[in-house]
């Protein structure tokens, strides 16, 4: 008795390529946890369909003022945030460079979040290597502006977004009208977004003029 061969079901593959595992993330995670006294999670961003953009989230058992105090005294953070030693392999920059070398591809940080007991700080990439190169200056700028971003020490913001830009509609196209271009390094030091627990909307902090901007702004956090 003959049997007809079964028809093979058509197979389908996703158009989205599966992400290749990034080597070296485990040791990089341990490096961050040691330097920042934090619990760290690292994931691969899906932003704009790009691969190899890391999203780093650090949970620190410190308040904002405590963190800035230890940063100033060199007892918290990556060594390049205080006085880096030449060829120091324990810095964020060295750690990322090692990951790039063993994976033989460019890998960058898309987002770097520091979750403190009383405030979350979210730093977004504005250019290649912008976070690793500017992290020290960004955190130093936070310390220098602490009195102003806390409304003369009346209360910490619950969230700080670095940087933010304003969305402006021109001929039905969205452009960034507030602050410098995204790729400008000083884009980190123009405007920040602050959220306070008692405010329904974000407040814009003008870093250069050390002032809070009120008004109905549609914000774009990069």
How do the strands and helices of this protein lay out in sequence?
Layout: H1 25-36, E1 38-44, E2 53-60, H2 64-72, H3 92-103, E3 108-115, E4 120-124, H4 130-144, H5 146-149, E5 159-162, E6 164-170, E7 173-176, E8 191-195, E9 203-206, E10 211-213, E11 219-221
Parallel strand pairs: 2-3, 4-5
Antiparallel strand pairs: 1-2, 3-4, 5-8, 6-7, 6-11, 8-9, 9-10
How would you characterize the overall build of this protein?
This protein has one domain. Helices cover 23% and strands 26% of the residues. The chain has five helices and eleven strands, in the order H-E-E-H-H-E-E-H-H-E-E-E-E-E-E-E. The chain has helices at residues 25-36, 64-72, 92-103, 130-144, 146-149, and strands at 38-44, 53-60, 108-115, 120-124, 159-162, 164-170, 173-176, 191-195, 203-206, 211-213, 219-221. Strand 8 (191-195) and strand 9 form a beta hairpin. The longest helix is centred in the middle third of the chain and has 15 residues, at 130-144. Residues 2-17 and 168-183 have low confidence and may be disordered.
Question: Which descriptors would you attach to this protein?
Answer:
three-stranded antiparallel beta sheet; alpha+beta; 222 residues; 5 helices
């Amino acid at each position: 008795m003959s049997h007809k061969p079964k028809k093979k079901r058509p197979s389908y593959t996703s158009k989205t390529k599966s992400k290749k595992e990034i080597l070296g993330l485990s040791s990089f995670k341990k490096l961050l946890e040691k330097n920042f006294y934090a619990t760290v999670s690292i994931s691969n961003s899906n932003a704009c369909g790009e691969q190899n953009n890391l999203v780093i989230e650090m949970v620190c058992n410190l308040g904002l003022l405590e963190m800035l105090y230890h940063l100033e005294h060199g007892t918290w953070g990556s060594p390049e945030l205080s006085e880096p030693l030449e060829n120091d392999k324990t810095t964020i920059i060295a750690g990322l460079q090692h990951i790039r070398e063993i994976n033989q591809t460019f890998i960058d940080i898309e987002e770097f979040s520091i979750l403190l007991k009383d405030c979350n700080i979210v730093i977004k990439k504005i250019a290649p290597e912008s976070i690793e190169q500017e992290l020290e200056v960004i955190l130093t700028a936070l310390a220098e502006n602490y009195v102003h971003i806390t409304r003369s020490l009346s209360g910490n913001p619950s969230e700080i977004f670095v940087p933010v830009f304003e969305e402006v509609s021109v001929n039905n196209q969205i452009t960034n009208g507030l602050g410098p271009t995204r790729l400008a390094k000083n884009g980190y030091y123009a405007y920040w977004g602050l959220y306070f627990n008692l405010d329904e909307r974000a407040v814009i902090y003008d870093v250069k003029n050390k002032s809070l901007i009120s008004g109905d702004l549609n914000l774009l956090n990069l």
